[in-house]
Amino acid sequence: IRYCRSGSLVCSCSGLRSGDSVGCCSKSRHGSPGSSKGPSLLTGERKARAPEDPVAMGRFEGRVGFDNVTFGYQKYAPVLKHVSFEAQPGEMIGLVGHSGAGKSTCINLVCRFYDPDEGTISVDGVPLKRVSLGALRSQIGLVPQDTYLFSGTIADNIAYAKPDAARAAVVRAAKIANAHDFIRRKPEGYE
Question: Which helix (H) or strand (E) holds 146?
């Protein structure tokens, strides 16, 4: 187990055997679910910009690095100060700290809802600022701490990031999340 400490944020990395990839989120229509900074996403404050000449990347291996990253939602008040760590593919990272220590901020930065004020965040050795937002967000998924249900059916909510998903894919996702049986017991099921 490796530990990295920056202020009151502690990162713990330990190896996994599952080989599952973990990451961030697909497209968002209403800001960042799970982020306390969602309104700033809606107004465009400090929003990450798409690269002018994005690097063509295939499927990510999943190595994520923070190199001397500093970030604050207001530049004069950094939430993260000089954070550095690297997570190898298949490793699980635990971010531990009090409220406001920067746990969700790290995830927001990996998703490129924002760009760091200083330092570099990379995936497979390529700086995230060079990767197209679509390529990045299509390969990673976020499970936020807060739950949101949007108007529409349960199937619509499951397929939120991919509205054209086939019914079989929606049901498969529900089964993976151990929600299928619960949904089937609802009076309207997936509808």
Answer: none
CA distance 105 to 35: 8
Neighbours of 191 (CB within 10 A): 11
Are β-strands 91-96 and 9-15 bridged in parallel, bridged antiparallel, or unpaired?
A: antiparallel
Please list the alpha-helical segments (H only) found in the chain: 38-43, 103-110, 133-138, 154-158, 167-176, 180-185
pLDDT at 173 over 50: yes
pLDDT digits 0-9 by tens, 79-119 = 999 999 999 998 887 888 888 888 889 989 999 999 999 99
pLDDT by residue (tens digit) across 29-78? 333 333 344 434 444 455 788 888 888 888 899 899 999 999 999 888 99
Give the pairing type, strands 9-15 and 2-6.
antiparallel
Amino acid code (one letter) for 187: P
Could you read off the pLDDT of 125-139 as tens digits, one per residue?
999 999 988 888 888
Residue, of 136 and 13, whose pLDDT is higher:
136
DSSP element (H, E) containing 188: none
Contact by Cβ (8 Å): 53, 121: no
Q: Which residues contact 161 (CB under 8 A, 6 or more apart)?
A: 25, 26, 27, 141
Strand positions, DSSP E, 31-137: 64-71, 80-87, 91-96, 118-123, 126-127
**What is the spatial distance between Cα 19 and Cα 23, in angstroms, rounded to a whole number?**
13
